[in-house]
Prior knowledge:
Radius of gyration: 29 Å
Largest sheet: none
Number of helices: 6
Distance between the termini: 50 Å
Oligomer: single chain
Order of helices and strands: HHHHHH
Amino acid sequence: MPFKGKPPGSGSGEMSRRTQALRPEIALSPAEATKARALRRQGAEPGEIAARFGVPLEEVEKALVQMRSRRPESTRGTLNVTLAAHRFVMAERQGEEPLWQTMDRIFDELIRLRQQVANRPPAAAKPRREVGRPDDLLPGLLPEPGPH
């Protein structure tokens, strides 16, 4: 499929001139700074890198501060849920608390309840007529029983 629209320019993906102007001067060339960051990713200590390039430690630290690093885990996520589950979570919200706090509280409660259930002695088998009954704790989340 051919590219639609205007293709990216020759300088796309490069640092903006404004960002470059705001960064402090470093005693390392751009190629040396890139090599210093690569050495750091490989596990070299900043002092070792400074000795290798023959520059003060502060200069190497300036280059390393500008280093991009991957986050080990995302701090946010998207949860695709049904409208009924969304209504349930919104009803569980306390005041104006953030949704992540509400979800953490709900999951915490679920984990504690599961631990309590796991520590109980086994219950007697349910009567046959209750086996197919949907859980009435979360109305709207489970399909309603209909005539078959």
